[in-house]
Write a structure and sequence with these properties.
Number of strands: 4
CATH topology of the largest domain: Alpha-lytic protease prodomain-like
Number of helices: 10
Order of helices and strands: HHHHHHHHHEEHEE
CATH architecture of the largest domain: Up-down Bundle
Distance between the termini: 28 Å
Strand content: 5-15%
Strand order of the largest sheet: 1-2-3-4
Shape: elongated
Length: about 325
């Protein structure tokens, strides 16, 4: 049997984000920051006998694990970028990491809601002063992490078009960002509930805020799941790119007809397309390919042209 790895491609199949390495370093830095805070809280909780510190420390551990998925996705997509076993490169490993992180985020939200609901029926004594300090420390760490992870699209992609933003969206980085954002939201709600409980005695607000936070986090997780699932299933949700391709084909040959086409995302800012065109004017696949090369996002294109006189032409980039 012929070894498929012996075949070589005349063009690159590396379809990673232009800022892949920057995003990977940011993710590892946030993991280090969160892990350090987690260890500090757990050790402090054991020394001072504070369940609030211990609980928040182990809660942060769950987010460290989730962000570890993002870091692993960055490493694998970079490490196997030149492995031609992957037909269209490793650009979608980040989307797989984002989908997996979204599932973990949904699980964390479910556990938050379950624990909060149990508190209504089995209330526990709360050390308000300690708990508020823990929540404030957690909030500071998460705000810092959010600023580190947030994609600066004004610098990375000089465009105000939200559709362009979606084309370049790094779902893996967004998943890590949502994890720290979810933790920050939890800390804010906890501070509000604990402060009211501390000064006005409304202890029931603590579990209520937990349930509200869990619902919001579930919405975030669901949105990320839908976005990443469409990429993983090769859905074409990019009508602006499709229209652009149609326009270029018509500019080359006004009487041509697109017989069939398939467009899908293969990495942040990278798309693949297979286009079949009927041309009555004798235009070749190379003619169409040279014009389609103007679309920066089209990183892998196969064009088939069927002339009405019966000849076929193929071109690939």
């Amino acid at each position: 049997m012929t070894n498929p790895n012996k075949f070589s491609s005349p063009h690159s199949h590396t379809f990673l984000s232009d800022h892949h390495n920057i995003h990977e370093r940011r993710t590892w830095f946030v993991i280090f920051l969160t892990l350090t805070t987690m260890i500090f809280e757990i050790i402090s909780g054991m020394i001072f006998g504070s369940m609030a510190l211990l609980a928040d420390g182990w809660h942060m551990a769950s987010h460290v694990s989730a962000m570890g998925i993002a870091a692993l996705a960055y490493y694998l997509s970079r490490h196997h970028a030149d492995n031609n076993t992957f037909t269209f490169g490793t650009g979608k490993i980040g989307d797989l990491g984002g989908f997996s992180s979204a599932m973990v985020l949904a699980l964390i939200a479910f556990l938050m809601a379950w624990q909060s609901a149990n508190r209504f029926f089995s209330p526990v004594s709360i050390s308000f002063d300690e708990a508020i300090i823990v929540a404030i420390v957690g909030l500071i760490v998460n705000i810092a992490s959010a600023f580190i992870l947030k994609e600066s699209h004004d610098h990375h992609h000089n465009t105000d078009d939200p559709r362009e933003h979606n084309h370049h969206q790094d779902h893996n980085l967004r998943a890590a960002y949502l994890h720290v954002l979810a933790d920050a939201l939890t800390s804010i709600l906890a501070i509000v509930a604990l402060a009211i409980g501390r000064f006005w005695g409304l202890v029931f607000l603590d579990p209520l805020m937990g349930i509200i936070g869990a619902i919001v986090i579930c919405f975030w997780a669901w949105g990320l799941m839908k976005e990443t699932a469409t990429v993983l299933l090769d859905a074409n949700h990019h009508p602006d790119l499709t229209d652009h391709i149609h326009k270029i084909i018509k500019e080359q040959d006004p009487k041509s007809v697109i017989d069939d086409y398939h467009i899908w995302r293969i990495g942040p800012g990278h798309f693949s397309a297979i286009i079949a065109v009927k041309s009555p004017n004798g235009s070749t696949a190379e003619d169409f390919k040279s014009r389609l090369c103007r679309i920066q996002e089209l990183s892998h294109v196969t064009v088939e042209v069927k002339n009405l006189i019966g000849s076929h032409h193929f071109a690939q980039l």
